[in-house]
Amino acid sequence: MTFGKGHHLHLIDGSAFIFRAYHALPPLTRKSDGLPIGAVAGFCNMLHRYVEGNTGPDAPTHVAVIFDKGSHTFRNDMYDLYKANRDAMPEDLRPQMPLTRSATEAFNIACKEKEGFEADDIIATLAVQARAAGGQCTIISSDKDLMQLVGDGVEMLDAMKNNRIDREGVFAKFGVYPERVVDVQALAGDSVDNVPGAPGIGIKTAALLINEYGDLDALLERAGEIKQPKRRQTLIDNADQIRLSRRLVQLDENTPLDFTIDDLEVRDPDPETLLGFLAEMEFRTLTKRIADQMGKEAPVIADAPAAPDAPVVADLPFDPEKYEQVSDAAALQRWIDAIYEVGYVAVDTETTGLNEMTAELVGISLATQPGTACYIPLIHKAGASDDLFGSEDLAEGQMKTEDALRMLTPMLEDPAILKIGQNMKYDAKIFAQIGITVAPFDDTMLMSYAQHAGLHNHGMDTLSERYLSHTPIPIKPLLGSGKSAITFDKVPLDKAVQYAAEDADITLRLWQFLKPQLHSAQVTKVYETLERPLVPVLAAMERSGVKVDRDTLSRMSNAFAQKMAGLEDEIYEIAGRKFNVGSPKQLGEILFDEMGIEGGKKGKTGAYATGVDILEDLATEHELPARVLDWRQLSKLKSTYTDALQTHINADTGRVHTSYSIAGASTGRLASTDPNLQNIPIRSEEGRRIREAFIAEEGKTLVALDYSQIELRILAHIADIPALKEAFERGDDIHAMTASEMFDVPMDEMTPDIRRRAKAINFGVIYGISGFGLARNLRIPRSEAQGFIDRYFERFPGIRTYMDDTKAFAKEHGFVQTLFGRKIHTPEIASKGPRAGFAARAAINAPIQGTAADVIRRAMIRMPDAIKDLPATMLLQVHDELLFEVEKGHEDALIDAARDVMENASDPVVKLAVKLTVDAGKGANWAEAH
DNA sequence: GACATCACG
DNA sequence: GACGTACGTGATGTCC
């Protein structure tokens, strides 16, 4: 078959795949011999995902993966500094390079490279040939150097983001169409490849110049006509360097190749070769997945001899057929006996829903050793799940719930038996509903969180894939989705047993794997003092809930609706037509296209940005954006708060029960969901009134206590800033003090505006400040913002040291730590480009935010005991605030007790050089209490 | 389901 | 020297 019209060539940028794979995965090694294998694993996964996605009319007829070969190319002969500032290839990546070639061949995909040429040149040559033959070509890469090739049958595809780049996409990136990309690159240069370009000229300016003069040659010829003197001189002085740069970025479309496109025809992989390679690499999950898809038996991957200090995990295969259904007392007794034999058991509950307040217990699964697990169904319904009306009759083969619980409760509450769960808070709440207190327990989710926060999430699917190389049975096929979804009690028993028992089995295996590592990772203390003890505390808070007055919300909702309708009329009037005010896309078109307002900026999706910042700027000149801002505020308040909150009021309790995720935020903070009660409005007057709907029960009062400036105090301690510490000791207004120090204004002459600036800088420091960010926040020129920052560092030199030290620590270890030993991993700190900047700022922020999170966790854990003699309940946590409900008359006693716990929460583990101060308030509702 | 927007600390 | 930039979250509506 000769390549031509109707054919489609795919060219995969192999190096891009490799580096993405390398940075996306932790440094995995092959179990049997420790060979670094992470990049190969990621590479194979990407290749497999790519092949899977190749269906439909657009599928390629020809494909090749193109690699770079050697580091010396013809460009180095032109310019010896080309790519000279590239970091050397990481030690553990080098041995993986040949393996990625083998992997490509194992997938039976053509694999091409050529000494002295970059992959980009080969890609260029093939793309041009494909175009000349009248075929289509897709380059799978997001490398901007390839963008010059786009157009006329050639396009690019970012496989990770599934983002196609055509001529317009290139224009969005470079400000010129593909045929002029080289000109722009020649001017702008490229720091990554060390292409010099013209000093002081970036892509924006380059595109401007090229568009004005047509092309680079014309520009250089007529450089004397450029108006800006500096720019003119730069171009005149550097003309040779610019021409050299153009030769460097220009891809060679005539690379001599010893093959043709016809040799790249798509071929099916040979199962034996592919599976053999994957097995040799010891990719258990991928081997099995691909074997299943091909309908082949997965080759056996030999168990590696465990390294002496590696935890021993039984590598027993998962077999859903081996799980037992427990149907009677005799069988259950055998399980209980087995549990007492070993002293621990993995427990998992199945219920009718995810909301522990309303969910009903459907069954319980137990596991005592890997592969040995059972499911005790309790209220599964009889009849097929496709029965139109369902059946209310219970299925055969189930114990009565009360009989089963009577036998299980002593074990669940027995201090001698350790109960192991994955996200035990959920199961503990289900059991608490029926009066059972599960203790003691371990939680595999929290063990993973203590060790790996920042690396990945800690759901069972993730942990099982990562640490057991096993994909759990998915729940979706059992329950369905959308309207036709059923609850677990409708799942046929045979399927239910396999699914439920497997969860307990996985949990037990994870525990065996993760528990011993707590110690070696030195996070046992974190797990034992900050994670596990918080579970029962949060469970109790969530079960308590907070009383919310539906009438108040409903009245506010109506008021908002009326105001919104009025605003909509005004908005349509100004716009001259009706449109959906809630659609940023339509709003952008109205503002910038139809009304012709200047300064519309398009984001990466090509839509105009219409965020608050932009609308606020426009609002000084125009009516419409001002009205839209008002409308948006009301819309937010109505939909997210006054309306949605009502649906969360529990019918039985009349209260709202949030759920806190303990292992969600990487820094150690909690997160509140369903509903989120950590973002109830307060900053605007209108929004603040929503807190009036959060009320105390009759005869009770709400009490709120919050840490004052906890993060700045922690910063003062960690970075050891005497001036800050002294100011906190004196009880000064910290932002005013900072302002006075920085701007040489005496405290008694402080103005609100100067203080506001200092406050922004104080917060900026906590976030890993940048001149750009501060400038945007304060809406001042960047140079001025940078001046403030310089001044700040000068006055408080410890801050810069802290920032530099923290970054260096993160680079060296891949994580940072809080004062209490919590680890927050920052894997991206090693990456190049803007990602590293993000990671660096996150690394600077994490010890501060994380230590504050640890402090309030410690307070919460001690709180139940400290207030046990008071008629008070802890209801909510909002990062630096705790909300309580207390019987009238006991408010002050509660404040005294709770404040004492909070202010001394770091004792005795960490002796803070700055005292922690807690403000308190009380009232009939949350607005008053705060 | 991605994206934009906006609520909180 | 330019790049793209404040930290951490969750919920909602639009649009594909």
Automatic annotation (TrEMBL):
Enzyme class at the top of the EC tree:
transferase
Domain 3'-5' exonuclease as annotated: residue spans: 323-519
Q: How does it assemble?
A: Single-chain monomer with multiple functions.
Question: What is the originating organism of this protein?
Answer: Sulfitobacter geojensis
Which NCBIfam families does the record match to this protein?
Answer: pola, PRK05755.1
The gene for this chain is polA
- In Swiss-Prot or TrEMBL terms, this protein is called DNA polymerase I
Database matches in InterPro entries: 3'-5'_exonuclease_dom, 5-3_exonucl_a-hlix_arch_N, 5-3_exonuclease, 5-3_exonuclease_C_sf, DNA-dir_DNA_pol_A_CS, DNA-dir_DNA_pol_A_palm_dom, DNA/RNA_pol_sf, DNA_polI_H3TH
Q: Which PANTHER family match?
A: DNA POLYMERASE I, DNA POLYMERASE NU
